[in-house]
Amino acid sequence: MNHLKIYRRLLPLVTFQNLEDCKPLASVLIHAGIPQLEIAFRSEYAADAIRIISEIDGIQVGAGTVLTNHQAEEAIAAGASFLISPGFSEDVAKTAIRKNVEYFPGVVTPGEVMKASEYGFQTLKFFPAESYGGLKTIQSLHGPFPNITFIPTGGINLDNYKSYLKQSYIAAVGGSFIIPEEFLNSRNWTGLESYIRSL
Ligand code: 3PG
């Protein structure tokens, strides 16, 4: 299995509204030093966008908001090298294991962490982070689960992301704040690159 290497511990998320933005966005992420991207299955473009970006050298692309086995299969067939879900799906977990693709299931409770660990997953999305107690809750989970690392997403922003990244058990922070819509909508690629570099 190819493990996702998350440069600068930032995991950008995008929901594409067209396919024209795929190549320029990939290029921005590569040049800005965070060559990794989660493409949300929240638009009809997700699978095609994964296909386009997975053919570009120097960037790792995966699928987000993977809710069903069908989406997991579609994402993997399109070239996704990792899958992320907002919660824990046994179906998606089994497909990821069978296809040897990395999976970051979502959790918030100790029971969910235990379930995900039973399947062998050790890096878990913590979602929706800010609504479920943020860093304080993750700190509490770290006690009984010292080998688990977390990717908090949901409500992570410019004001709070650094406090998460101070902790060793935070594998990365994720979310839409890394690719703000204002840059995407205006296709301000140079502005986006400077913004990401400044994070
Ligand atoms: C996700 O799917 O990870 C979240 O929707 C990200 O939440 P955010 O938009 O608050 O970053």
What does this structure look like?
39% of the residues lie in helices and 17% in strands. The strands form 3 sheets. A 4-stranded parallel β-sheet has the order 3-2-1-9. The longest helix is centred in the first third of the chain and has 10 residues, at 22-31. It has one domain: TIM Barrel (Alpha-Beta Barrel). With 199 residues, the chain is of the alpha/beta class. Strand 7 (123-126), helix 6 and strand 8 (149-152) form a beta-alpha-beta unit. The protein starts with 9 loop residues before the first strand and ends with a helix. The site of 3-phosphoglyceric acid (3PG) has 13 residues, from strand 9.
List the helices and strands and how they pair.
Layout: E1 10-14, H1 22-31, E2 36-40, H2 46-54, E3 60-64, H3 69-78, E4 82-84, H4 90-99, E5 102-104, E6 106-107, H5 110-118, E7 123-126, H6 134-142, E8 149-152, H7 161-165, E9 173-175, H8 181-186, H9 189-198
Parallel strand pairs: 1-2, 1-9, 2-3, 4-5, 6-7, 7-8
3-phosphoglyceric acid binds next to strand 9.
Short overview:
By secondary structure, the protein is α/β, with parallel strands linked by helices.
The shape, in one word, is: globular
Question: On the 0-100 scale, what is the average pLDDT?
Answer: 97
The low-confidence parts are none
Give the CATH H-level superfamily. Aldolase class I
Distance between the termini: 30 Å
Count every helix, treating DSSP H or I runs of 4 or more residues as helices.
9
Quick one: how many beta strands? 9
Topology-level CATH name: TIM Barrel
Oligomer: single chain
GO molecular function: (R,S)-4-hydroxy-2-oxoglutarate aldolase activity; 2-dehydro-3-deoxy-phosphogluconate aldolase activity
Subunit structure: Homotrimer.
Pathway: Carbohydrate acid metabolism
InterPro entries: Aldlse_KDPG_KHG, Aldolase_TIM, KDPG/KHG_AS_2
